[in-house]
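Mods, move this if it's the wrong board.
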Amino acid sequence: MPNLKLLKVDGGLDTLKIDVEPSHQKCFRYLVWVSWIKFPFDYIPKNFEMGNLAILDMPMSNLKEVWKGTKCLEKLKELSLINSIYLTCTPDFSMLPNLEKLILSGCISLVEVHESIGRLQKLVKLDLSRCHGLKNLPINGKSKLASLETLDITHCQELNKLPKQMRDLISSNGLCSLKEVFLEGCSLTNDDIPDEFWMLYSLESLNLSWNYFESLPSGIG
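Not the wrong board. Structure tokens:
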């Protein structure tokens, strides 16, 4: 299958094991879309060719890390690892310049987001909802997230403060496209939100449910 472009695997059985042998490498060379439910490995094997991938979707995977080292995936636009409960860290994003969607919802063991996330100039959607162990979101005034439209950190209880660096990012117009922010159930108080946050004039939808706010600023309307 040298021209295979779409690979869909439903690992409905926990015992499913599919060996990615070096002899199969040519089969993966032209893959554009991989959808693999319950991917059985701790990380994506080195010989799994991904150079042409646009979408990598691996819900409920066994991944502990996405891949070893740094990958140059210039065509990758969407990385989705929903409910990959063993994942502890994200990959280095330095060589994923065209990534538009990063969806890590339900990755409850995730504790670290690589600092290179701030270089994703084309990122439109960042979903870290229900990443209960996440303590830090490494974005700052030098981050280049001007394309970001949706930020979802719902039920990230350990992320109990929006990063102080976000103040600089907003002031430098680094979140000028942000339209939707979901902060439900993050144990936030008034002091956790920098004043600059309320200056996001592009914002259209804001969810602050299940937090500990005593009041909202008069300028929110």
